[in-house]
Amino acid sequence: MSKVIFSIRYNVFPEKREEYLDVIRELKNLVKAEGLENYSVYELKNKQNNFEEVYIFKTQEAFENFDDNQDERTDILMTKLSDMIKEQTTQYTTLVEVNN
After folding, report:
1. Domains (ranges, CATH) in the chain?
2. Using CA atoms in the order 32, 35, 37, 41, what is the torsion angle rounded to 10 degrees?
């Protein structure tokens, strides 16, 4: 079974940075799902307020079922995040592991 790496890259409004970091800290404690190996958030080096969320799933099935596992608090935090992100800066990437 192939692993899946899903990432979301975006720019955050500078005035929302601290609020964004608070939301991300809480999300890191909440984001859990069957088949999710890791959830991390990175800031691009030398590009302040440019972040990337990286999800690593054990299987394609776990990736496809991920949205079904969100609880109410996670949904609220995700909505807050969307208000902090500059429009038209979001990029999604989905990588599927190549098996031999």
Report:
1. 4-96 (3.30.70.100)
2. -50
